[in-house]
Each structure stands twice: as C-alpha cells, then as structure tokens.
Amino acid sequence: MWNPFQKAKSKISSTAVNMMQKVAMKKLQNMSPQEQQKLMQEAFKPENRDKLLSAMEQMKKSGQITEEQYRMAKQKMGF
Fold first, then answer.
1. Distance in angstroms (rounded) separating the CA atoms of residues 67 and 65
2. How many helices (H) and strands (E) does the chain have?
3. Domain spans of the chain?
C-alpha cells in the first residue's frame, strides 16, 4: 500500500546500474579491436590499477567475493 510519509528511495536503483552495465558492455562489443585495446590501456594505467586493487581488497574484506575469486580476477587482469 502506498504511504505518503515514506522516505524517498535512493535515486540510483540496482536495476538502473545493471542497465547501465549492459549498455556499456554492448558499446564495448560494438567497438573495433583497436578502440577496445586503447580503452583497456586507459583502464589499466598505474593509478587506475591501484584503485582497482583497493576496490577488490575491500570487496574481499566485506565478503562480496571469496579469496579464490580475488586471485582469479588478479590473474586475469595480469596483476
């Protein structure tokens, strides 16, 4: 039932994020291999690598990913 006094939900919902991820993946798939390579080089710059590693560490500590998933992700990214 609708409650007029209920607090507003957050502006970004999980479905919106999932939709944005789908759009990003579709855009990546439609890129030429040269554009994809350029994008990946940009994503794996040293300062971005540090951010990725710290985010993965945080996910591991919070239990979102397991130790095995953490090691596999690092291996796939070449860390």
1. 7
2. 4, 0
3. 48-78
